[in-house]
What we know:
- This protein is 33% helix and 25% strand.
- The protein has 539 residues and is an alpha+beta fold.
Amino acid sequence: MALSSHSLFTSSLRLSTNPASISNSAPLFSLQSPSKGLSSVSRTVVERENRVSAFSKKRNGLSTSGAVATESTETASVTEDKTSEPEEVSPEKIVLPSNESSERLLRIRHTCAHVMAMAVQRIFPDAKVTIGPWIENGFYYDFDMEPLTDKDLKRIKKEMDRIIGRNLPLIREEVTRDEAKRRIMAVNEPYKMEILESIKDDLITIYHIGNDWWDLCAGPHVDSTGKIDRKAVELESIAGAYWRGDTNKPMLQRIYGTAWENEKQLKAYLHFKEEAIRRDHRRLGQDLDLFSIQDEAGGGLVFWHPKGAIVRHIIEDAWKKIHMEHGYDLLYTPHIARADLWKISGHLDFYKENMFDQMKIEEESYQLRPMNCPYHILVYKRKLHSYRDFPIRVAELGTVYRYELSGCLHGLFRVRGFTQDDAHIFCLDDQIKDEIRGVLDLTEEILLQFGFSKYEVNLSTKPEKAVGGDDIWDKATSALKDALDDKGWSYQVDEGGGAFYGPKIDLKIEDALGRKWQCSTIQASFEFTNCSTAYSHHY
Length: 539
């Protein structure tokens, strides 16, 4: 089995189905321990941003919140600031609710999206509506219309206030598919027709705002617009968004808004935003002359300046020292490899959309590495191993490259090239539990050095696209579960959230503002032993 571990980092287990084997072609257990977090701020932030920004689809809307795993609170506490707000709305006295903790808040936000769409179409009759879900801190709606300005937002908010003040009822109606189609055609809403075609149910639900406006929707909503506190609603920004996220489809106008149960919560949230801006790493990186992203070189490629390089050097030295103390050997591996290697590992089948195009070198195809796993397996299988050699622990600060659209790039949070602390452990079946537990302990030790003591823990299981049979996945998942139970950490199961090659433990850390960020990952896989056998066969 192979385990991979990340100490601000990831770790993934690789298990062998042949415990008697001690050859290089079939490790008994390999623990892939990509310790992602200390090596590079850009890498760490990218990994966690991928989790934070991904929307989880639900029948009644969208949520940006990930699965909550431990007893840590789901809501964000706002940092104390005794001078910026009067006592009666002091942010430190407010604990902000979430969509998960308050159904009332969720209903308010969903209804606000509808009220905003109604207001937009009153002011801009030619605007076409698409979708309008609730999200983590509010709501948004996408429109096919001419570009909007900040001045337009003020007009839209004023019209929303009028609609809210009329206390119009939200009326749920069920209609047949044919009737829904007739109504959509009558108002000439092509995007709603496309949405209707994607709905599988025979009965279609429609929500009306009074007798003035309606939308295809499964709910839920508040009983009437008067249930919304207009002073607790604010329109925040305008952005471009492709329909269905497809760059070949029309660019829409997306309006973001925030909504809360009362004005005090809104003021606390706005204070929270101000603090987040004050701590924005992009501003700090520029003000402190730590790093930059140069247009001449291309987006998403980070330049570490002398001051930032010293910080990185100190962190990397500490990372190397603690890993060697825990029995890891250090590696340095290439940034590119033959494309066939990524075919054998499964990355070209399951991860191709995140990989750059291949390049030709002397009539052979080569690939920039998106991950370090295959390299560590090649190092492992270079020679025969005795059972006395296990566990074998290797670690690397490995630079990888991921394909990202320019519109998704965001400071160090979403980049195209980054360094991750990546480690793998190869071990025997009877060493699995202790090795995973060791990775959890190492993760905790490193996170504590940076002041991170609050975690949410998820156990992510087999996704739809995966390699290996259910029996192997069950064995790997059980290994992670046993180690978590032994550690005494509370966790939540994220069904279908694992990597294509194995289940994983994900840790989210909490920052000074109470925000959760995906950080460390520990992955388990028996399948990499099969990969190493394949490598041996082909090379």
